[in-house]
């Protein structure tokens, strides 16, 4: 009986987190209330407080328990690709798959740090873009060691890749214009592989 009760409690907590993610993604955390989340979850407002102390606590848990693992899973799925540049390209593709399959996660990732100026000061240990930057910089350093790319400033390279990824995701989510993310990934792959200089 206790096991069943614990499972039900765990399931309800996860359901609240999922609905909170959708509400935060739609309205931004600053434009969302506990009442909004309770309504989306189909429960009483007081029930939310049984599981979470505040809206800020709920947002933090959304980041740590849902978005954090998604990012780590993307990295884990690409880590065994032997060729460093192919690993980078596949990382980009995996991120696009996340954006397209779970747009509410992508929306929260992209928009929250733009709309909430206190985002990173509130959660200094959670910075998804920095996690991406560190990973791409590590890949670039490995690619140089492997002789796959010429020596270059790997930090700048990482900012270039992640910056394009972040901006493309924001455009895809916020504009009415269609943006073929897969085609963009192929174009980025081509530019990285062959550069921009015209061949003689």
Put the structure in a nutshell:
This protein has 200 residues and is an all-alpha fold. 76% of the residues lie in helices and 0% in strands. The chain has one domain: Tetracycline Repressor, domain 2 (Orthogonal Bundle).
What does this structure look like?
The chain has one domain: Tetracycline Repressor, domain 2. The chain is 76% helix and 0% strand. The protein is elongated, with a radius of gyration of 20 Å. It is an all-alpha fold and 200 residues long.
Keyword list:
single chain, mainly alpha, Tetracycline Repressor, domain 2
CATH architecture: Orthogonal Bundle
Largest sheet data: none
The class by helix and strand makeup works out as mainly alpha
Number of helices, counting only DSSP H or I runs of 4 residues or more = 10
Would you report the number of β strands? 0
Class in CATH? Answer: Mainly Alpha
Name the poorly predicted regions. none
Kindly identify the CATH topology: Tetracycline Repressor, domain 2
What is the helix/strand order? HHHHHHHHHH
Q: At the fourth CATH level, what is the homologous superfamily?
A: Tetracycline Repressor, domain 2
Strand content: under 5%
């Amino acid at each position: 009986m206790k096991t069943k009760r614990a499972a039900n409690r765990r399931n309800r907590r996860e359901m609240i987190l999922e609905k909170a993610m959708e509400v935060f993604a739609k309205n931004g955390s600053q434009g969302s209330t506990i009442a909004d989340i309770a309504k989306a979850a189909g429960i009483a407002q007081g029930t939310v407080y049984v599981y979470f102390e505040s809206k800020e606590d709920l947002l933090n848990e959304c980041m740590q328990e849902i978005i954090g693992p998604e990012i780590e899973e993307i990295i884990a799925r690409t880590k065994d690709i032997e060729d460093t540049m192919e690993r980078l390209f596949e990382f980009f593709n995996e991120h696009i798959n996340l954006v397209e399959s779970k747009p509410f996660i992508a929306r929260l990732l992209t928009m929250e740090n733009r709309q909430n100026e206190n985002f990173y000061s509130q959660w200094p240990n959670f910075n998804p873009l920095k996690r991406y930057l560190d990973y791409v910089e590590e890949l670039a350093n490995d690619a140089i060691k492997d002789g796959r790319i010429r020596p270059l400033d790997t930090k700048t390279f990482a900012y270039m890749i992640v910056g394009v990824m972040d901006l493309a995701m924001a455009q895809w989510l916020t504009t009415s214009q269609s943006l073929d993310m897969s085609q963009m990934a192929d174009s980025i792959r081509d530019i990285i592989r062959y550069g921009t200089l015209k061949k003689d």
